[in-house]
Design goal:
Two copies of one chain form a homodimer.
Chain A (H helix, E strand, L loop, with lengths): L4 E4 L11 H16 L7 E4 L1 H9 L8 H16 L2 E2 L5 E2 L1 E7 L9 E5 L5 H9 L2 H18 L5 H15 L9 H19 L7 H15 L3 H10 L7 E7 L10 E6 L11 E6 L3 H6 L5 E2 L2 H7 L6 H4 L1 H18 L3 E8 L2 E9 L4 H13 L5 H7 L12 E2 L7 E4 L1 E4 L2 E7 L2 H9 L4 E5 L7 H6 L2 E4 L7 H9 L3 E3 L4 E4 L4 E4 L2 E4 L3 E5 L4 E4 L4 E2 L5 H13 L3 E5 L3 H9 L5 E5 L7 H12 L3 H25 L5 E4 L13 H10 L4 H11 L11 H6 L1 H20 L6 E5 L5 H22 L6 E6 L2 H5 L1 H5 L4 E4 L1 H9 L7 H9 L16 H15 L4 E4 L7 H10 L3 E4 L4 H19 L1
Helix pairs in contact in A: 4-5, 5-7, 14-15, 14-19, 15-19, 19-34, 20-22, 21-22, 21-23, 22-26, 26-27, 33-34
Chain lengths: 890, 890
């Protein structure tokens, strides 16, 4: 008999924190808190295995589940001396989802479950507060009707509005217990009308309905979207947590709150949180009421007027502080906790590792090492490398004049400029058209996920630092300002009103998520430097990582950035970019238009000094570090003139005529340029092109060698698929190197290698390795040919592929291990088989993707190379990969 | 010590026929003839290993070669009681190349070697024929000067012309021995002038010079071109045959000839050949003098006036007839022999398996089985499957009126129509521009190979049935008419003159290589049927082959052809071709232009009946045989209108406007359509398209089932690279099948499989096999993505790749075993691992290529599928592959 249900509570706890996969994050942590002796309302967790069973068996349950649930329910009843469905001291339950990865707000929750016409009387007897009890009952019917029975919430809300209208009420608070009592049968009748079946009076039926609904919600489209974006597998499933209800809304001695053991935005080691007196938990998160600060210090710092918890409930506050310490010491990470105060009693409802800004993550990790709580490896593992991106992209330039039109909470740091739109759907559409947009909403909800993902930044006029918008934006690394209460949104006219200013849809605004400001128009941005905690952590990463991290860079600026960001060298310098300068492109075109080799050589001779000087500059910056130079790769027609003016100019330079140029243009046009006459194929047909490039590289090498600098250029021949392509061109480059060395009387070292970017190259990597001094996997092209996906054309179906779950990730972002990865593995094995210790890197965009970097570590690559701005991400990811490898080995 | 030299002759023979790789074809067969006791001038063979050694060691020889050559030379001297370089009974030698695959005329030959001012006197003493001797000496200087020293032959010829002019001679025959004697020092002086060094008097120096020249000629550009076209590896090398000279030009009792043991053109079991009295061997082949028939029967049949060998040399003829029988019985194949009669003595200079027309090949194979000489397997192996192509392509329609303007020898059968050109170079250029051309030459030479390959047919005004043009054309399967002596070529005006007719370059003519006729303009062609020997052989092939042979066919005509040619079913029916009909294309366009799914469905509903009827027709023809239907594959923009008229028409049908259509056209444009939104990707985004197609297939299946026919359609989903693509679409097709079955109340069987045509599909073939009922490798696309070669764009570099030897074969013609083949192997293994016995075929163009078919057999494929016209080729190739497999296993 399988165990499907795990109890937790002071009367016996069966789970623990390490059972996250089975119990979900929430369930595992509830169990763990119970084991630590913290005050947790008792309950039980139905495992994620049941979820999988459920979907694999046509939404049925395992046979023995029912008895296990009933047994666990009895334990809760006995522990609390309450009875589920009883007219006396009835037990009420909350039913919540809980997957192993947090998916906030994506799945269903049912509260107050167990209420019916009988138990409601027991509640009234017990609480003597019929207003609270009948309101709770009404809320339950509404929530259950909506979540489990699928009746639109609007229907209930409008019935309530009608009722209030009829009686001249304006607020919910105007309704008495009697009013709610009247509304309940009206709601129930409507449920029957809409749903066809009566509202279930039987609490057990209610319970099974709610359990089914939570499991069912694992497959709702919001949850699917969230998982797709966050790369969470469908196979994980959700657990269901059934827990005794506690109420934060029974009166003034009740409250509910959310708190972080350290500041999730700045990382400061200060207790931080928000709470609401006389409210249910959802009220804080939903951003409907603006919450009160947790601590006095916080209150002072933020200038908020409302009383802090430290003031309202000093005793419970100090109890909470102890719990904070206890939990952080236990979990060795910053905790995000939910609590409820029911009639003066503190209950912990949840704890989990808290989401944080990258700034906070770096400080917390660095602080905790200093505090002796964790070691350096733990610190490195705690940080999400992808999040570093936030620090590596533009921030507002503090020296720029800005026109601030409003202010809100600094919910997620960084600056963002974009055109404003007022719905998630518009955000997605505009972004799909290449617009950079700022999503402006009163408050966001889980339905907005897609639109938030598409935005550059998010601005809400309501909600706090822990509102949905704030949490999600921090997770996504999007700048976000919340609770900008001095702004108003007019949805009908799609206008944002800030005092006398009005901004229409499409107007450009800038938000500063670090300071909480909203500004008119675009604002200058600057790149922050790597200092402080960031630098500390990066230092640790470099100590631990075993893979090199290089940058893809060709301009001096890029090379400087790469060096500043700690690159170990250049892994890909694309020489073709060097030909696009206005004073060079016409010589390039002259070369392409030349009718014979001699004239091509003449044109190339004019390009030689430019290219040599480029390399000299690059080599001076990179002194002492390796530089991989890729010879000409793109098809020649990319260099040809497009406009009539350009054509006329080229005709002049190349002593040709417009007609001849157009004929040549047509000759060079290709049906599938990606699979056409490019890469080393160009040099098999026009060897003089690579000859010139090799000469430029080696003359530059000799020149900097004379200056006393140390450069060993790594000449990379692209798009090799056939052994002889490489051997012929390798011979050519070698000949040029020897000639230059003799001519200039300078000895220098160099390597000749190849870009492995075609399936065939992987398949014959043994043959290629006999000739190549190094491999660099060009995973962009390799992904294109392995999948048969053109990166330029994939957009017409990629979105649908992701939406339908045909693929879970864009293979051009995260390396496809199953397909492309297999070819790379084969290439590495075959290559190293022939040449043990062969230097092997990757230089596709995947070189900056943490998951792909981890795969590169598994493959034993020598280095990864990525865009200069992603170098720190890659350094951290490489360190994490090395740690994981060590752990696997141990 | 390696053995580099093998003797042959009546005084000790060291080689044999099976040592072809080491001794080359000529050397191995000379040795074999010696072992059979036939009269062969003695000599020795320097092995192909020496050739490889030579090129791997900077054109030097192994150390011990010299002593081995000298020892072997001594054996020849002793056997013949002659001495190399002696003034008394001097030994003269012929030095000839000989690779393991015949490469007629591609490499160097030196005759009469050993003559110098001393030995020439010995020859005169011996022969008492100073005219013959001094002419031989002159010829030797000329040949050696040209071949070994690289002096243009024209130089010698013009000196000879000058000499004749000065003395009023017109023919070479006018010169006396004294004249030749005078010319010799003139030639020698010129050699010194041109070459800088005196003509070598030392016979040993002559010998080593000639050996080096023959080895060197292995790498000349003609030889490289020939090898490239015939797919012969550079690594094989040539042997050098050094053999005692015999002379067919010592007088009236001398002759030289070429003969075939059966007629190489018709296949008849009749001795066939040509000879010339008082001539050297080269004279017959070069086509300078029109030769005499070998037999009396031949003379009568051809109406030639000159005396046959049977009449001139009755005794030697009967000796030759015995040798013919002996060799054929020994080699069990039709022999192509060269002989020389020196002063009444018959010498055999060469024997090899004779080239033949495919018609002859079939008859010879079939006859030899009947004669009990060989068995069926031997017969099948004897036939080159590629050559069958000649029988499967148009022949002249006998019922058409033709305007015959000339007549020649029927040198290679089949009809060809094309525009005439007068040089090999023009032939290559015109053909590269897509022109079908007929190459018209006085006679062809090895330099013309490229142009001959590019032509549809060849016409020469000189030369016999064994001339260069005839031999090469038969090998290539090109129609050819030789010796059309009533036509005249005016090269200056690029005109062909036939009596009063004149034809300019570019005019269209037709040649009939079966009858030897030349006709004005294009002539109707018909397809011959498979009857007689062809049918017999095909029957044997079917008995022996283990792989199925299907056809790629979609129209009823193609299906009929496929069936007539013996296809086992249809392996690829491309449904998109069915949409291009004028009455359908606009509905297709309407579908593409539809703004939503409902309108797309409406348009598709109009296409359904057409498609269903297509399948009904196809299924009726293929009753009882499998039919694989591939669902829509190409990108949608291939169906969109191009001209303004078309756009207007579509606008009308689709109730759209020109602007909207142009917008949609632009939306659908792709940078790399081959890697774009096509194949199953279309159906993931627009499932309704495959839904309609599946419905059409199953409704057709049900319809023919009601007629009592048996069809199990195999629905093939193209371009799958991801498991879920296949599983989602397989579910969709299954649902349609079940729905159609229920609606029409007809039970039918069907299979759902996939085209494996992306590297990724091969890499995850195990996952795919879990869903697929069958695989069909789409080797065209797989070759494109594995190499990264677009088939539409490869022409810009393929030619150069082949010329430079970067690749030896077009990978779109012959499957690249090393790269693409490895992926296929992986796919087969992974697929069968999951589903043993999985039905696997290939349906790329490689399915009709004999070498690729052999590879498919090695992989254990279930069937190959090719164009209907190649089905018989594939049947034979499959049989050969099965035989080879058996032989490997044994």
């Amino acid at each position: 008999m399988s165990k499907w249900v795990y109890n937790f509570g002071s009367y016996g706890t069966e789970g623990k924190a390490s059972m996250k996969d089975l119990l979900g994050g929430k369930g595992a942590n509830l169990a763990e808190m119970c084991s630590l002796g913290l005050p947790v309302p008792p309950g039980f967790t139905i495992t994620t295995e049941v979820c999988n069973w459920y979907f694999e068996h046509d939404k049925k349950y395992p046979e023995d589940l029912k008895s296990q649930v009933m047994n666990s329910l009895r334990v809760v009843e006995e522990g609390l001396s309450r009875k589920f469905g009883s007219g006396e001291k009835p037990l009420l339950l909350s039913i919540r989802s809980g997957a192993s990865s947090s998916m906030p707000g994506m799945m269903d929750t049912v509260l107050n479950l167990g209420l019916n016409d009988r138990t409601v009387d027991g509640m009234v007897d017990e609480t003597r507060d019929d207003r609270f009890v009948y309101d709770s009952y009404r809320r339950f019917i509404q929530m259950y009707g909506n979540v489990v029975l699928g009746i639109e919430n609007e229907i209930f809300e409008s019935m309530l509005e009608d009722y209030k209208g009829d009686r001249g009420f304006s607020l919910d608070a105007d309704l008495t217990g009697e009013d709610w009592k009247v509304l309940i049968p009206i709601f129930k009748n409507r449920v029957k009308e809409e749903f066809g079946v009566s509202f279930p009076e039987d609490p057990k039926a209610q319970l099974w309905g709610a359990i089914g609904s939570v499991f069912g919600s694992w497959m709702n489209s919001r949850a699917k979207t969230y998982r797709r974006i966050h790369g969470i597998s469908e196979k994980l499933g959700t657990a269901v947590n059934v827990q005794a209800m506690v109420f934060g809304n029974m009166g003034k001695d009740c409250a509910t709150g959310v708190c972080f053991s350290r500041n999730p935005s700045t990382g400061e080691n200060k207790f931080f949180g928000e709470f609401l007196v006389n409210a249910q938990g959802e009220d804080v998160v939903a951003g409907i009421r603006t919450p009160q600060p947790l601590t006095l210090a916080e209150k002072k710092a933020s200038g908020i007027n409302s009383a802090s918890m430290e003031e309202c409930f000093p005793g419970l506050f100090s109890e909470l502080c102890k719990i904070r310490e206890r939990l952080e010491a236990h979990y060795k990470d910053m905790q995000d906790m939910e609590f409820t105060i029911e009639r003066g009693h503190l209950w912990m409802l949840q704890t989990r590792n808290g989401k944080r800004t990258i700034k906070a993550a770096l400080q917390i990790a660095s602080d905790m090492v200093k505090e002796g709580l964790i070691n350096k490896q733990d610190a490195l593992i705690m940080i999400n490398p992808g999040q570093l991106d936030q620090l590596l992209h533009p921030m507002l330039d503090p020296n720029t004049q800005t026109d601030v039109i409003g202010h809100g909470l600094p919910a997620s740091p960084g600056g963002a400029t974009g055109r404003i739109v007022f719905s998630a759907r518009d955000a997605e559409e505009w972004a799909a058209n290449g617009e950079k947009i700022i999503l402006v909403r009163t408050e966001t909800s889980p339905e907005d996920i897609g639109g938030m993902h598409a935005a550059e930044g998010i601005l809400t006029t309501r909600g706090g630092m822990t509102s949905h918008a704030a949490v999600v934006a921090r997770g996504m690394g999007l700048p976000c300002v919340t609770g900008a209460t001095d702004l108003r949104i007019d949805l009908i006219n799609k206008t944002l009103i800030a005092g006398s200013h009005k901004f229409l849809e499409g107007d450009t605004l800038t938000i500063d998520g670090t300071a909480g400001n909203i500004m008119v128009g675009a604002v200058n941005m600057i790149l922050p430097e790597i200092t402080g905690d960031f630098q500390t952590i990066m230092g640790w990463a470099d100590e631990i990582r075993t893979m090199g991290v290089r940058a893809n860079a060709e301009t001096p600026e890029e090379a400087e950035t790469a060096k500043n960001f700690g690159a170990d060298g250049i892994g890909l310098s694309r020489t073709e970019h060097m030909f696009f300068d206005p004073d060079r492109i016409n010589h390039m075109r002259e070369m392409i238009l030349a009718p014979d080799q001699n004239l091509r050589r003449a044109a190339l001779a004019k390009l030689l000094p430019y290219q040599r000087d480029d390399f000299i500059q690059l080599f001076r910056i990179m002194d002492g570090l390796p530089v991989t130079v890729r010879l000409l790769d793109p098809p020649l027609n990319e260099f040809l003139p497009r406009t009539e003016d350009e054509i006329l100019k080229v005709a002049e330079v190349a002593e040709s005529d417009v007609k001849a140029i157009n004929v040549r243009k047509q000759e060079l046009e290709e049906s599938n340029p990606m699979l056409g006459h490019r890469g080393c194929r160009l040099a098999i047909t026009y060897p003089e092109v690579y000859e010139m490039q090799a000469r430029a590289i080696f003359e530059a090498t000799a020149a900097v060698a004379k200056e006393g600098l140390e450069i060993t250029p790594e000449v990379m021949i692209p798009l090799v698929g056939i052994k002889l392509e490489l051997s012929v061109l390798s011979d050519l480059v070698t000949q040029v190197a020897e000639a230059v060395s003799t001519e200039l009387g300078v000895e220098f070292k160099y390597m000749i290698g190849t870009m492995v970017e075609l399936p065939r190259a992987c398949l014959i990597a043994d043959e290629i390795a006999k000739i190549a001094d190094f491999f660099s996997f060009g995973t962009n092209d390799l992904t294109q040919t392995t999948f048969g996906f053109s990166r330029d054309d994939i957009n017409s179906f990629l979105e649908i592929y992701l939406k339908k779950g045909i693929i879970s990730k864009d293979p051009f972002v995260t390396l496809d291990e199953k397909g492309v990865g297999k070819l790379i593995k084969l290439g590495v094995e075959k290559g190293r088989n022939v040449k043990p210790g062969l230097k092997i890197g990757i230089c596709g965009e995947h070189g900056g993707d943490p998951e792909s970097i981890n795969f590169c570590q598994e493959l034993g690559l020598t280095y990864v190379s990525c865009s200069p701005f992603r170098v720190p991400i890659a350094r951290l990811a490489a360190a994490q990969a090395a740690i994981q490898e060590k752990q696997r080995a141990a």
